[in-house]
Amino acid sequence: MDVTAMDKKNVLILSTGDVNGAYEAAYKVAHIIKNLGHNVIMCVKHKTKNENFIKPYRYLSPSSANPNIVMRIVNKIRNKINPVQSSKVISTDRKYSFFSNNESSENIHVESMLETVGFTPDFVFTGMTINFLNSTDLLNIYNATKAKIYNITVDMNHFTGGCHYSWGCEGYIKGCDKYCPAITKENEKITAKQNFEKKYENAQKANFQIIAGSGLTLLQARNSKIYKTRKTIYNINSLIDTRLLNRKNKPIAKQVFSLSGDCFYILTGAQNMEDPRKGFSYLLQALELLDRELPLEKKEKIVLLVVSNSINEEFDSVTFKKQKIDYIKDYRLLSLLYQAADLFINSSIEDSGPMMVSEALACGTPVVGFDTGILTNMVIDNYNGYKAPVRDSRKLADGIRKVFELNKDTYEIFSKNAVKQVEEFSSYEYAEKIFKQILEQ
């Protein structure tokens, strides 16, 4: 889908990395916009993939940037007067993922950034930029280029005082203050207020726009003090490549993993199951309820497939059959695993995603989980799965049982509806339409 030379835009994607989770999302955005025919560079702090359009940021010292000895001296003096500032370390409650310690700091030199990129961007899209750059750096990029800047909400950080997950705190709505629950030391709590005010100021000066990454972050962005006045907030819903993730091999997927055609396989997992955000204790409670309530002949048909780098020891108490599967990075094999499963459970209680929900749906696997993150608008009760109120293990167990007891024909309808939901609201094709609208402005 090529654009004309006149309409071709220079697009800069900014992300700390290019693999896994939020960083992978930025990589997908880069590919989608490249496929529209625009000039795209993804600038990262840590490069892993070998594509040429991904460039690691490099600070160009005065000697390498300008060989003239007089200019070297001038630049040396300038850097001493206004050096790149380091962020202070503050004490935080880890569950909030409070990483933005100093929103006023300058972490990159814009001249070095533009030299790395090789063009002056018309548009800038940012995802997760932990330990790379912040809103002050984005303002500096705007002042140098006048590019339109869009922040993508892989979590809440773009509109909070520093945390990536709020855990019910409404600071992002009214403005963070000195009572920030994420910061544990009283004399440091003011950091959240200072960060929030700087983010708000920078967003107004450069007219930052926001793109939601899930139904939940769309609602949060609309309610946030920083972005509530934005007329349009698009939602891209995980960005799923349906060429890789689909249900085309569902009839044979169980055979690939040597799974029985007579069993009902429940897939769940996360990179780290010890993370309290993932809510696995509530899933264990739901499984205990099912263990007590299901007749033996039904219980024996259920097998729990657990994908994780580390499994919570409490899973040893689960009486259903269990099978551990190592974390899968190859999307072709992951697609087959989703297709082999009969149900995917997401027990997250504080999450902006996860992407696994949309990936499972794309592969025709119904989803049951708590009403948060991507489930908020991608899972529809009695259509492609079931949602339970957050932390309600009773309702979670009910949703699992409902899918388990679907007859073959109804299950097939759920499976097809799961794919349809992704194609309509989470596919590359859906995202292309959104980015085309943005880039044509």
TrEMBL record:
Pfam families per UniProt: Glycos_transf_1
GO MF terms, alphabetically ordered: glycosyltransferase activity
Alphabetic keyword roster: Transferase
Keyword Transferase: yes
Entries under Gene3D superfamilies matching the protein: Glycogen Phosphorylase B (3.40.50.2000)
Glycosyl transferase family domain boundaries: 276-420
InterPro entries: Glyco_trans_1
Keyword Transferase: yes
Name of the protein described by the UniProt record: Glycosyltransferase
Species of provenance: Chryseobacterium cheonjiense
